[in-house]
Amino acid sequence: MKKLFLLIIICVGAIAANANHITGGEMYYTLVSQSGNNYTYHVVLKLYRDCNAPPGSAQLDPSASIAIFNNSNNSLVWQKDIEKNPTVTLDLSAPSPCIQNPPDVCYQVGYYEFDVTLPGVANGYTVAYQRCCRIAGINNLIGSNQVGATYIAEIPGTSILANGPANNSARFTGRDTVIICANNYFCYDFSASDPDSNDPSLRDSLAYSFCGAYLGGSPNDPAPDPSSPPYISVPYSRPYFGESPLGPNVTLDTKTGMICGIAPSVGIYVVTVCVTEYRNGKPIATQRKDLQIKVGDCNVADAALKQEYLSCDGFTYTFGNEAPASVLIKSYFWDFGDGFTSTLQNPTHTYADTGTYVFKLAINRGEECSDSAISRIKVYPGFFPGFTSSGICVNKPTQFFDTTKTRYGLIDSWSWDFGDPDVQNDLSDLQNPIYTYSKTGTKNVRFIVTNSKGCRDTVYKAVDIIDKPVLTLPFQDTLICNGDTLQLHASGIGSFSWSPAVNIINPSSADPFVHPTTTTRYTVQLDDNGCINNDTVQVRVVNFVTLKARGDTVICLTDSVQLSATGDGLRYVWSPAATIQNPNTAVTNALPAGSTTYQVTATIGRCKATDDVIVTTVPYPASNAGADTAVCFKTSAQLHASIQGSSFTWSPTSSLNDPNSLNPVASPANTTSYVLTVLDNIGCPKPGRDTILVTVYPKVKAFAGNDTSVVVNQPLLFNASGGESYTWSPKTSLSSDDIHNPIGIYNGSFDSITYRVIVVDENNCTDSDFVTVKIFKTNPQVFVPSAFTPNNDGKNDVFRPIAVGILNIEYFRVFNRWGELVFSTTTNGKGWDGKIGGKEQASGTFVWVVKGVDYTGKSVFAKGTVTLIR
Length: 870
Known about the structure:
By secondary structure, this protein is mostly beta strands.
């Protein structure tokens, strides 16, 4: 028994897993005959299957369980399994070349047909078929592979019309092999026909609507005997629902059954269209077509325009194709309807006058994949929407005023949404409505207004609703002199009243005048349509002004000083005002040119008081560090300073020979600023300072050249550097002694000579250097030692050639006894340190060869051995 139960579960699971093959269906019927109150119908169930269903998906069922229910009590009156007729394939085998990457659109359609005779009843019948489940991954359903379907047909009863049962149902006739590309404009024909529409005695008509698809069956019972009505809608996934299965950009024409709009994103969507039959103006039956529509990742060469365009803010408009951009669109042609054209993709055109213009867009004109669209644009600039409001209190009327202006036509409609989140009927179509809010807060009011020329615009405005009107006072406590008059001020929207009504002029205005003889607190009330707010102002009455200025002071000349006064004055004035920053405040700053007496006057109306401040100025101590100067590197400068004061200090002092002198000698290593600070004791406590900059020129770097060797009569070109002028000494054997590059030629009368060159730079700073020349009384050759001792004692550590009379060394090479190259160079004076790869070599004999070119251009070659001694 347990094995049998397990087998049943496995079989049911297998059926559910493979039943997600049906992609849509509909049911319709034809009246075959009538005998008295008995009607014979030929009923057709039409089921769709995707030809490209995943491997393992089931074929259409060989039979379908169909049931008929009496709508009066939903009781079952008939049920039978109906065999399937041969399957028909609907295939879009040759899609348009003007669609890039078109999806495969192919349906296998199964027909289940039967005849049934039913008596006419009051409320008619429902014919039903149920199957689970739909395919997985449907975009607009939740858990679509667990959601089944119910397909029905309605047979009218006699309660609506006596001849209701004598009916041929509507049946959908639109083409099902339609390609829909994501985010592209499309149209899908869900139109239907009604055989009774041609009968003048019946006068049937059809109306279309989107409706919710029905649930049916379950994963555990995928092919049940149909359950009785009513049937519930499938679970739609937001933002989709039965009446908007493809999103807000797709609509259904209720008269033609044509679905058009901008397709949603790539995927599969359940779309159900209901067609209702009307007979003599009364609805008698509704038929349904439930189909899973595939939206592909393709692109269409399409010209699409809205039905109408408006230009209500100017004569200039920028046009564009409403269809998505496509690589298949090669050219554009716009005819603006006023004699002007353009070939731009998004042209901007200015019309010369107002009016309604019919314009046209053509793509790929005269080419493959051409298309065109026609629309109209109404050009009526000068439409300025707007509104104002008054009354801002909760539970009090708020009046809204339309301030829209239009240059052409008349304002002809108003639509208000008062932004009250607590109610649904906060709407009005009046021009100047009144609305009462029940709660405080910011209300986002929306106002849509149109004119007779078709202009339409929306204005959003935030309206703050509060518990009382805003009442603002610039001051709440003030002073007046006894006998004076004071004007009070209040601001807000509404009417004002002041109290007490004593010693007050115009107490019903926002700005009354008062003249109390004693301190009085006045209360102001603001009334905005019964919405009340209150506030107070205290007016203190005095008979005199209290005033005290700061004490006298001494400051350094050219410094500023703060002047201050305390008291109860309402207005202050300082004099003389020429040297005062702001002479009309109690606290201010002054910059006196010398000792000055400042007077301050404080007033309260006609009452006033004065006081003085004496500011004595004392000059700063005088400091003169002298003129800036410059010195050569490692030289000194004599400073010459002067002061007017009692003491002084230098800073820094480390490079001064006597920091206590006004004339010290400065020997800075680098450019240095010396600050001379002077103090005095005659009243100015601040120091006087001056700075002298001693610039140290960069060190002159004289270079005479490296020591060298020549042979007799070999020209030697010197090349000194480091300055602007040069002096050589001695002048012996030199072509010149005052240039940087003299030539020396030697006759062999001495073995060596040392020259000194003095270099002077652009700052007239000097330096000198020496170079020694050895003279050999031989022919040009390369001298090579026979041994060397690389022991790092600084003597004979490197084995190197000594070239005499040689212009350049072509190579100097050293080999070990196995003929391996251990060192090579082309630089005269560069040699071998007795190491190979950083490793010291043992004592032994090595072979060397050298080749060079002498100063006459002749080759010089020599070879020999050298002994390395450790």
